[in-house]
């Protein structure tokens, strides 16, 4: 049978990837379609389990503590056990923990379940990033990571809408749907994606080798600064918009999802051909400017416009971080490098609410201008690292 090649436009957007990548892409969307519990954890704990706000905050912090362990542990497993086994095992463990949480009624059981869930729910990320780096050529990695970013946002946007409605019928539905999609993703990976992990040699340095890589550590530090900017959208922005009503934040954030779903696929291929560090730094600047402009926002429309600005910066960053990590990491340590990169996001999730709420208590202007300045600092740091990253990439890829 002769297979006709797709049109050149379509080929430039989505072509050139091996079949296992598309399995991973499809499984990611299925999994994100079922991600309905996490955004509603606070409401679930207070309304369904009758916990006070103080106890709810403690339980959620336990979840954050688990997530700190998640990325380094999953990265180590991806390199030692394999990408496929880590991804599948993380999905199955997430499904089991989701169901256990859904039926837990004691505070002790819920706290234990939340810690375990924090460890396992994002364990797929280092394995997924390592898989893409193994399967896709360096020049196509930004496009591949960008497509995965788009799929995550598409699935999550739909999940947010349907999850809110299903929660009215009972939160247990959300736990079951989330668990089922995790199992489906795990089975799909195990059945349709071959193991891509390079052979582990006795000389492999493990995390010692990762922590000895000063360029990688510097990149992680720059990314941590950026996370403290970007994650304000989920911690302090809702507080800043509280006076406009609870629905205003939801509608304003819908701008973020819509722009990513419709704009990002149009720019993905063009951005992939540009210097990764320059694009990433430009994204950092635009995200910082978008948050700085929040100083002038006082209505739902005004906040929506600032969200539109920093979303454009977020689109620029999509896929670039993963592509840089893949370029910096030796093949046998890709899981650990991805785990360290993911760890910076976990640390950022702990720092951001502490930093942001204290600055907001001083004044909104202090918060948003400080965040904007931090975005500029992150961009300058990324540009300073750009020559070394380019040299490392040439060494890995060759002339």
In short:
Helices cover 80% and strands 0% of the residues.
What brief labels describe this structure?
mainly alpha, 2 domains, single chain, cell membrane, transport, globular, Growth Hormone, Chain: A, disordered N terminus, 399 residues
Number of domains: 2
Structural class: mainly alpha
Mean pLDDT across every amino acid position = 86
Count of discrete alpha- or pi-helical segments spanning 4 or more residues? 19
Q: For this entry, what is the oligomeric state of its chains?
A: single chain
* Range of helix content: over 70%
Number of strands: 0
> In the CATH hierarchy, what is the class of the largest domain?
Mainly Alpha
What characterizes the major β-sheet? Answer: none
CATH homologous superfamily grouping of the largest domain:
MFS general substrate transporter like domains
Second CATH tier, the architecture of the largest domain: Up-down Bundle
Distance from first to last alpha carbon: 37 Å
What is the fold-level CATH name, i.e. the topology of the largest domain?
Answer: Growth Hormone, Chain: A
| Rg (CA only) | 21 Å
Uncertain ranges: 1-12
**Estimated share of beta-strand residues:** under 5%
What is the overall silhouette? globular
Secondary-structure element order, N to C: HHHHHHHHHHHHHHHHHHH
Pfam families: MFS_1
Domain Major facilitator superfamily (MFS) profile: 20-390
GO molecular function, one term: transmembrane transporter activity
Transmembrane segments: 21-45, 51-69, 107-124, 145-167, 173-193, 214-236, 248-266, 278-301, 307-328, 340-360, 366-385
């Amino acid at each position: 049978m002769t297979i006709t090649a797709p049109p050149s436009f379509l080929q430039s957007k989505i072509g050139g990837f091996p079949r296992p990548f598309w399995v991973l892409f499809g499984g990611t969307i299925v999994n994100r379609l079922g991600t309905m519990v996490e955004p509603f954890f606070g409401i679930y704990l207070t309304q369904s389990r009758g916990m006070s706000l103080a106890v709810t905050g403690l339980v959620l912090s336990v979840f954050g503590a688990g997530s700190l362990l998640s990325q380094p542990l999953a990265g180590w497993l991806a390199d030692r056990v394999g990408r496929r086994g880590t991804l599948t095992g993380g999905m199955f463990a997430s499904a089991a923990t989701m169901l256990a949480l859904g039926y837990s009624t004691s505070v002790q059981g819920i706290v234990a379940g939340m810690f375990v869930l924090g460890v396992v729910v994002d364990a797929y990320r280092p394995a997924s990033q390592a898989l893409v780096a193994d399967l896709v050529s360096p020049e196509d990695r930004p496009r591949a990571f960008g497509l995965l970013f788009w799929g995550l946002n598409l699935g999550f946007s739909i999940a947010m809408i349907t999850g809110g409605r299903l929660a009215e019928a009972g939160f247990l539905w959300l736990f079951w749907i989330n668990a089922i999609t995790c199992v489906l993703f795990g089975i799909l990976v195990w059945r349709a994606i071959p193991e891509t992990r390079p052979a582990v040699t006795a000389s492999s340095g493990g995390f010692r080798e990762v922590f000895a890589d000063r360029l990688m550590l510097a990149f992680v530090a720059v990314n941590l600064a950026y996370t403290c900017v970007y994650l304000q959208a989920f911690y302090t922005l809702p507080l800043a918009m509280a006076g406009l009503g609870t629905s205003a934040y939801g509608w304003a954030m819908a701008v973020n999802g819509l722009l990513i779903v419709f704009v990002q696929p149009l720019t993905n291929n063009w951005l992939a051909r540009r210097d990764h560090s320059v694009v990433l730094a430009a994204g950092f600047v635009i995200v910082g400017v978008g948050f700085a402009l929040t100083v002038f926002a006082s209505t739902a429309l005004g906040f929506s416009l600032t969200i539109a600005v920093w979303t454009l910066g977020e689109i620029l960053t999509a896929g670039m971080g993963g592509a840089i990590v893949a370029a910096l990491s030796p093949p046998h340590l890709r899981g650990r490098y991805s785990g360290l990169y993911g760890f910076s996001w976990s640390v950022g999730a702990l720092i951001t609410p502490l930093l942001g709420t204290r600055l907001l208590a001083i004044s909104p202007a202090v918060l948003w201008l400080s965040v904007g300045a931090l975005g500029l600092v992150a961009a300058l740091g990324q540009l300073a690292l750009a020559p070394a990253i380019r040299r490392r990439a040439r060494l890995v890829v060759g002339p």
